[in-house]
Design a protein that fits this description.
Blueprint: H1 2-8, H2 25-36, H3 41-51, E1 54-57, E2 63-64, H4 67-72, E3 78-81, H5 84-95, H6 101-109, H7 117-127, H8 140-144, H9 155-166, H10 174-180, H11 186-208
Antiparallel strand pairs: 1-2, 1-3
Helix pairs in contact: 5-6, 5-7, 9-11
């Protein structure tokens, strides 16, 4: 179990993985529907800060992100809602994005206009969502159609699909991910996640330049 936790839980922190728990496809779809119910960015950010910022820590204070492990060992984990400062610190450390706690609170309160594209992408990485869900100008059908919500995926497969869409491979469907990776080992899936994450970071660094 410890090996499994290290693989799917907080050990990915070194590669810049978000401390926010992963979601099932159904949970992700429900979150998108909720976010689309807000007309502006501030409402969507407020919802994420208030309801989607709970981080679970093990005895070593390492974030655990595997939803199955969290459900099975909830009593052994410490849960804390990440503050705006903690989110700002993560964005700087793992994405090189400089944004202050006050700026995040100003965005939440609607006192600051839409953030820069790099900040939106950083928020999306932190909360494990498609960045389009944070942009009120994005047509709703683009979000509700992403991803294929009728196909159930394991947490690693879901993350692979997220990253593939993130780097521009948006024609890949969930059902294809599940069948293509069905016989892949957990280690190989994690290696693919790390490669796709690195490509995504390279793309974002190029965009910022």
């Amino acid at each position: 179990m410890n090996d499994r936790r290290a693989q799917q839980g907080g050990s990915a922190r070194g590669s810049g993985d978000s401390p926010i728990p992963r979601r099932t496809a159904e949970q992700q779809t429900a979150l998108y529907r909720t976010l689309l119910g807000f007309d502006g960015f501030s409402g969507r950010l407020t919802h994420l800060l208030d309801h989607e910022s709970f981080v679970h820590y093990d005895a070593d204070r390492t974030p655990v992100t595997d939803p199955e492990f969290i459900a099975a060992r909830a009593a052994e984990l410490r849960t804390k809602r990440a503050s705006a400062q903690a989110i700002a610190d993560w964005l700087l450390e793992h994405r090189g994005i400089s944004i202050s706690r006050q700026q995040i609170n100003n965005l939440r309160a609607g006192r600051r206009p839409m953030p820069r594209a790099s900040e939106v992408n950083g928020f999306a990485d932190y909360w494990r969502i498609d960045a389009r869900a944070l942009d009120p100008a994005t047509p709703a059908e683009q979000i509700t159609g992403f991803p294929d919500t009728e196909t159930k995926l394991a947490a690693p497969d879901w993350r692979i699909l997220e990253l593939m869409n993130e780097i521009g491979l948006q024609s890949v469907q969930a059902r294809e991910i599940g069948s293509a990776l069905d016989n892949s080992s957990p280690d190989n899936k994690q290696a693919l996640i790390e490669i796709l994450s690195a490509i995504s970071r390279d793309q974002k660094a190029t965009d910022e330049d």
